[in-house]
Specification:
The complex is a heterodimer. By secondary structure, chain A is α+β, with helices and mostly antiparallel strands. Chain A contains two helices and five strands; from the N terminus they run E-E-H-H-E-E-E. In chain A, strand 3 and strand 4 form a beta hairpin. Chain A starts with a strand and ends in a 15-residue tail after the last strand. Helices cover 5% and strands 36% of the residues of chain B. By secondary structure, chain B is mainly beta. Classes of the chains: A alpha+beta, B mainly beta.
């Protein structure tokens, strides 16, 4: 069974780890199953154009999907997916906004 | 997690809605505005560039746009002054537009007579409207697909639509401002938009008088005289007497015509407040003296207001939504700094007091008046008329004091 692990900052939206009842074959399908459980998560992980937010990392096991085919990355029946905020994104309001 | 405090506002209270780079705060005071109680932080760690209070149609609704650098910007409302928050359908750029929401810069109530209408201004620059009190939102197509749009450029804060001014007399007319794009106005309910920048300089371009591309920082309008507008530009202070068709320079007597923030007096259409900034390089108040400037003659002259404000070593910056006025009598004026301080004047700017410090950098400050729950704004007491006799003001103050004691 595919398990999706959520970061602490999204626990209030969903809740820790979610076991997907279906058997997704790709990350994209797993995420779509996740949105069905909690629609509020979609907007936080993907942009409205369907791309992964730049400061959100998704791993299958220990490998980032940015290097394994993105949302098309294949899954095994017992894959574990980790959604993790990137350390690069922690400067809210202090990035180029500093130039105001 | 940061300790969260809540407020229980009462009718007659004044609220300051303070958005910072690391969360939102709400300050509450009684009608006297002598002391302030703090609540928050709401959305700790999120940048809150836009807040609003909607008291139309029996609502008592706080709005906030909380942006996570990781998880994007999310619009939320609270009907219990911050205890719980509801997430409506979020603002989304249409599929195929090639744009994705980065920040919500402004939440604005719609035209009078349309109590369920709201607007949001976003980055990338676009205008979104809700016609059902904020449950659902859609992009205003006439501006989203404007032929100028591909040539708008980001300013220092990004490519943002930060100012929305629905005309209080004409439901078909709305004016918006974009950095950098300039001023645009629709006269047909959003179907078409025309650049309204005649007279506004763009000194950072080879042609300093382009049709569009100006870096407008803020525009204000008085509901009693909507054809008169005041504008703080990226270099330049302007006034329009024809709804934005043309603009005249009114920067006489200010130490710098660069700045971000601008606010208008609630009852005097010719009284405007600004905070000049030294330059677009240094971006601190001139001479390290924190001074608000006020005109009471529509930009004919400006006077510094500094009583109670630090006049030495004040390397402060006030951003475009960091200055606001309330609707009390006398009118209160408030501003928040990038260094996390909130200053307040309860006498129209004559004297100031530091009411709070130590907040994260303040990116927006709005005011709200708490009426009785279930009482729509249109039924509230009429606004005081400027120039009333002192006896009337005294009576009003006494009534307010009695009401505060009863409460």
């Amino acid at each position: 069974m595919v398990i999706v692990h959520l970061p602490g900052s999204l626990v209030s939206v969903a809740g820790g780890a979610i076991r997907l009842g279906s058997s997704p074959e790709k990350v994209k399908e797993a995420l779509e199953a996740l949105w069905r459980i909690d629609p509020g998560l979609q907007n936080r992980v993907l942009t409205e154009q369907g791309t992964l937010r730049p400061h959100v990392n998704v791993f299958v096991g220990s490998e980032s999907i940015r290097y394994t085919g993105g949302l098309e990355t294949p899954l095994d029946p017992d894959s574990e997916i980790f959604i993790i905020p990137a350390v690069s994104g922690g400067a809210s309001g202090l990035g180029y906004d500093q130039a105001w | 997690m940061a300790l969260l405090r809540h407020l229980s506002p009462r009718p007659g209270d004044v609220l300051l809605l303070v958005g910072t780079s690391k969360g939102a705060f709400v300050l509450r005071s009684g009608p006297s505005r002598r002391s302030w109680e703090l609540a928050g932080p709401y959305f700790p760690g999120r940048a809150v560039y836009a807040m609003a209070y909607d008291d139309r149609a029996s609502r008592q609704r706080l709005w906030a746009a909380a942006q996570s650098a990781h998880f994007g910007a999310v619009l939320q409302w609270s009907d219990d002054f911050g205890r719980t928050w509801t997430e409506p359908e979020n603002i989304r750029f249409p599929e195929g537009s090639g744009r994705s929401l980065r920040q919500i810069w402004q939440i604005c109530l719609g035209h009078p007579g349309e109590p369920d209408s709201l607007y949001c201004g976003t980055e990338p620059a676009a205008l979104f409207q809700s016609k059902d009190a904020g449950h659902h939102w859609s992009a205003v197509a006439g501006l989203l697909h404007h032929p100028h749009q591909p040539r708008w450029e980001p300013g220092g804060g990004g490519l943002c639509l930060h100012t929305i001014l629905p005309d209080p007399r004409d439901p078909k007319r709305t004016l918006v401002a974009i950095s950098t794009g300039g001023v645009y106005r629709t006269d047909d309910g959003g179907l078409t938009w025309r650049a309204r920048n005649q007279g506004i300089r763009a000194p950072f371009l080879p042609n300093p008088h382009p049709e569009f591309g100006q870096c407008v920082h803020k525009v204000v309008q008085h509901p009693a005289r909507p054809e008169r507008l005041f504008l703080q530009n990226h270099w330049g202070l302007y006034r329009s007497d024809d709804g934005g068709d043309s603009w005249q320079d009114v920067a006489k007597g200010v130490p710098s015509d660069f700045g971000f923030a601008m606010a208008i007096h609630a009852y005097a259409p010719d009284t405007v407040y600004i905070v000049p900034i030294e330059s677009d390089e240094f971006r601190c108040v001139p001479e390290a003296k924190l001074r608000v400037y006020r005109t009471r003659n529509a930009g004919g002259s400006w006077e510094p207001l500094s009583s109670g404000l630090p006049q030495k070593g004040a390397f402060e910056t006030i951003l475009r939504d960091g200055l606001a006025t309330d609707r009390q009598d006398p009118v209160g004026v408030y501003f928040g700094t990038r260094s996390g301080k909130v200053f307040a004047s309860r006498n129209e700017g004559a004297t100031w007091k530091l009411v709070l410090e130590g907040l994260p950098p303040i990116v927006c400050l709005k005011t709200a008046f708490v009426g009785r729950a279930g009482l729509s704004r249109t039924r509230r007491r009429p606004p005081p008329v400027k120039g009333r006799t002192s006896k009337t003001s005294r009576n009003k103050r006494m009534r307010a004091k009695r009401a505060a004691r009863r409460a």
